[in-house]
Design a protein that fits this description.
By secondary structure, this protein is mainly alpha-helical. The protein has a domain of 316 residues: Amino acid/polyamine transporter I (Up-down Bundle), CATH 1.20.1740.10. It contains 17 helices and no strands. The longest helix has 36 residues. It is globular and about 65 Å long.
């Protein structure tokens, strides 16, 4: 299956995405863009440190291993099925159309809420850069202007060409990551040693802190599977996409481990602890007398959040495109632009919803970072549910096709256990408000999609014929 077949009598205009378009590096860039790895050292690692302390590097190592195992389950499908429907179609092939629909809506929530979160994250980090050069600006009018600017540029890039989008992501992310690694290497040279006995000896660390740190570290990786939405647009999708899924999570995971170790070491003995620092690389670069490098890295972090907006709305649009083809969303969302072959209607919808969510929290009185945390947590629930269903679907799919082996069962069980640990950690101990109500908000959002699916199945079963074909692998 190389594309989504269009049901007769729905929509007009372009229907197909541009095929055989993106090379391997551009496919990898899609996953890297949603992960936004440059943003993690500057914003997320300090939060993980607040819980895991000297075990922060270990929490990221465990999270990397866990998601590599989850990636193996995703690749059961990505090596066999090429589709813009991503995990939605994968879960349907293994567990049937109902599970596919649940996965699709969960994944759509994940991508849209990630886009909304990083709109606020982009504003926060951009204002931080301005403050570092002496411009202390704030206020809702400024937030509104910046939101429209960042989202507008991201939309135009996504509308024009997916290759332009992935190349923008590639340049922004890898440039900033190179500077982050450079800063860490210079720190260790300046410090005179790479051995930090507090971290290697796990001082003050216990299983409880590692578990909580693992939950938070997991948040840094969500969206690593985003390359799977390029099943039509990728060159050699059954070869490039599986490699991109594992390459993105493993490479980024190693970078996170190194960054966590380096930042923790750099803040030992500092008057301000890592978890209390709003600009950790400004502190690190100041230690070896290169404050300008800290400003450049901070700007790169802001750019990283911007590219995450771009990658997230691109991913959301392609999932929505597939849902629309299967009668699960308005038929117009399956149209593609006549010139650019982008899913412009689905892209427009995803962008507008993300913008409204981001601005809604800001205008409700939440600051940028609080809004980022709330929206990002809701997004993470979407990814966790989607990953869990695909992980369960993988061995079922292999069994039905006579390919199931012992190692597949073991791998899937390990992935399920690791995902269960993360899911349990998000709800127990019960977090403070508003995080304690977020699981219920997420379930209500998923329920909206499920109820609509059940309604269609009852009143218009013919509209779901394509879903049946997809999920049973009949195409």
């Amino acid at each position: 299956m190389s594309d989504i077949t269009v049901p007769p009598g729905v929509a007009t205009g372009g229907k197909k995405l541009r095929s055989n378009h993106l090379n391997f590096i551009e496919v990898v860039s899609q996953s890297v863009g949603v992960i936004a790895p440059s943003g993690t050292p500057g914003l997320v690692i300090p939060v993980v440190f607040a819980t895991a302390g000297n075990g922060t590097w270990l929490a990221y190592l465990f999270a990397t291993i866990a998601l590599v195992v989850v990636g193996l389950q995703i690749n059961v499908f990505s090596s066999r099925i090429a589709t813009p429907g991503s995990l939605y179609v994968y879960a349907g092939h293994g567990l049937g159309r109902f599970a596919g629909v649940v996965t699709g809506w969960a994944l759509l929530i994940g991508y849209v809420f990630t886009a909304a979160a990083v709109i606020d994250g982009t504003i926060a980090t951009f204002l931080g850069v301005l403050q570092s050069v002496g411009l202390n600006l704030s206020g809702l009018p400024l937030n509104l202007m910046l939101s429209l600017l960042f989202v507008g540029v991201a939309f135009v890039l996504g509308w024009r060409d997916i290759r332009l989008s992935t190349r923008t992501t590639l340049i922004a992310e890898f440039s900033t990551l190179a500077l982050i690694l450079l800063a860490i290497v210079i720190w260790f040279v300046h410090h005179g040693s790479v051995v930090d006995t507090a971290q290697t000896g796990l001082q003050g660390v216990n299983p409880g802190t590692i578990r909580l740190g693992l939950v938070l570290a997991f948040f840094s990786f969500v969206g690593f599977e985003a390359a799977t939405v390029l099943g039509v647009e990728s060159q050699q999708p059954r070869k490039f996409i599986p490699r991109a899924v594992l390459a993105s999570v493993a490479t980024v995971g190693i970078l996170f481990v190194v960054a966590a170790y380096g930042l923790t070491d750099a803040f030992h003995g500092n008057a301000t602890t890592l978890d209390q620092s709003s600009a950790p690389f400004a502190v690190v670069t100041a230690a070896f007398h290169a404050p300008a490098l800290g400003v450049v890295i901070s700007a790169g972090v802001a750019l990283s959040f911007f590219t995450c907006i771009l990658a997230s709305i691109n991913s959301a649009a392609r999932v929505l495109y597939a849902l629309s083809h299967h009668g699960l969303f308005h038929a117009s969302a399956q149209n593609t632009h006549d010139k650019h072959a982008s899913p412009h209607i689905a892209l427009s919808f995803s962008t507008i919803v993300a913008l409204l969510l981001a601005l809604g929290l800001l205008f409700s009185g939440w600051d940028e970072l609080s809004a980022y945390g709330i929206l990002g947590s809701l997004a993470t629930y979407g990814f966790l549910l989607a990953y869990s269903l695909v992980t369960i679907a993988a061995p079922v799919y292999l069994y039905r096709h006579g390919e199931l082996k012992t190692q597949h069962v073991v791998s899937a069980l390990v992935a399920v256990v690791l995902l269960a640990v993360v899911i349990f950690g998000t709800v127990y101990p019960v977090p403070s408000w508003p995080y304690n109500i977020l699981p219920y908000i997420f379930l209500a959002l998923v329920a909206l999609g499920v109820v609509y699916f059940l309604f269609l199945r009852a009143v218009a079963p013919q509209r779901l014929a394509q879903v049946e074909a997809e999920t049973l692998g009949a195409l």
